[in-house]
Amino acid sequence: MALLERKRDLLVAEIERLREAVRRVKRRYPFEIVAWVVLPDHLHCIWTLPPGDADYATRWRLIKLLFVKSLPKGERLSTVRKRRHERGIWQRRYWEHTIRDERDLANHVDYVHWNPVKHGYVAKVAEWPFSTFHRYVENGIYARDWGGNSGISTDEACGESEPR
Hints:
Helix content: 40-55%
Oligomer: single chain
Radius of gyration: 16 Å
Largest sheet: 2 strands, antiparallel
Structural class: mainly alpha
Strand content: 5-15%
Number of strands: 2
Order of helices and strands: HHEEHHHHH
Number of helices: 7
Distance between the termini: 16 Å
Strand order of the largest sheet: 1-2
Shape: globular
């Protein structure tokens, strides 16, 4: 999920508004957050939905809507967005991937947590505050220094360079 203007820091600057939107949607449409990282202009997450429920789209639509409604207006709007009465906060599309197996899950969890290092926000994964990485450390899944070597490649950290 990404901001329309990729140079903004809106997601971390307004992290509490984003968290509140997620909490509200989770109450109405439950899901488990397996892994999540929020970067200034985009986020990555892995969810588990209840059995028989595959409606990611409604959850994302509502999270995006609630977040936007909580923000003061002021963003630049294209002619198309003005005509459609849309806010100019989010990119319209997002990328979805169904996890295939335990290895795929582990690779994607690593990818999510490695992302702040990949994008150069921090040298060590543990330095980024907006991540479920810290929960994984508390639960003994990762060592606190996992991904702390700035010389490690994404391939080495995550098992692949980009999710497929």
